[in-house]
Design a protein that fits this description.
Length: about 375
Amino acid sequence: MTSVRREWLFSLVLATLCIGLLFVDLAPPQRDFSSFHARGLVIEVDNSHVRTHQFIRTEFQVLTVRLLGGPHKGSELTITNLLSGKLEFDEFYEEGRQILVEYGLVDGEPANGAARGHYRLHLQALLIGLYVALLVVVAGVTGLKAALSFVFAAIVLWKLFFPLLLMGYPPLLTGFLVVALLTAAVTFSVGGLNRRGTATFLGSMLGVLLTCVLAIWFTGSFQLHGAVRPFGEALLFAGHYDLNLTHIFIASVFIACSGAVMDLAMDIAAAMEEIKLSNPDIGLVAHIGSGLRVGRAVVGTMTTTLLLAYSSSHIFMFMLVMSKGLPSLNILNAPFVSAEILNILVGSFGLVTVAPFTAVIAGLLYRSRIRATSA
């Protein structure tokens, strides 16, 4: 079987797994009644009960909504939209807006409805479609494989990883196995079932393993726990008392950096392959040295990747603690800030070391001559 056929067969297996996982339900909702979801149009709003204090709204809105889809399309129902005064959770609706409605049935008619936010699902689907189209236009077949691996990663996290954690599976082992599965899917789908894909996979996993070990070590040394993450404490109050939030936090550290690690490993492996194709007689030491030089150049720009990604996602937190006028030592020593520093630096260790890991592995794999068509 040729390498091209192997890669298409692997992509077919990946697509089949994606479809199969959609029917997996490891964590069914803990509810004893049936409900429906549909897109609804707000046709009337009563704000007479809303209390406004500066930018905070409390009490409730009364909405009249017409269902635009689902089995009860065209029906109208009244919804009470409770306002807690927390901007991160509340949504304020106006007439003419489309919202996601969850409702039940009373005597066969829609009733007891609840607003679940402005309707965004169609825009999310459009954005995903545009992203996939861009990948295909820019990278052709490789872009299509990348889109498939992207979908596979999202489904694995949603259908396997999160439910398994809720079921009490060990977060560190489960997280590492999930990363190994996703890394294999991405690297072999995009890089191919060849030495390039193998070098990318092995180099990535070594980088992730180092990140995992360092995360375990420094989390204990920093005296941190998983409740520093948003919604961690809420999970405990929701009844999941047996969850090990600290181990889940550690798993999140090496999972978060695994994508960037794969990216860098693929860059090095692809460069090593091109070097070997251009100079088949290059020696092992010289080949690895060339890969290390490529790695140095790439790492020079990649070292700030995690810093910018993580710090920008917590920009409000940093602005808040700074606005309090606290000394820098107090800010840096705070648990939630220390957690982000650990996340950034430990992840960066894996990102930096994956370059030499991949260069050495690729050098060993490419010791023999290769043909341009067999890579």
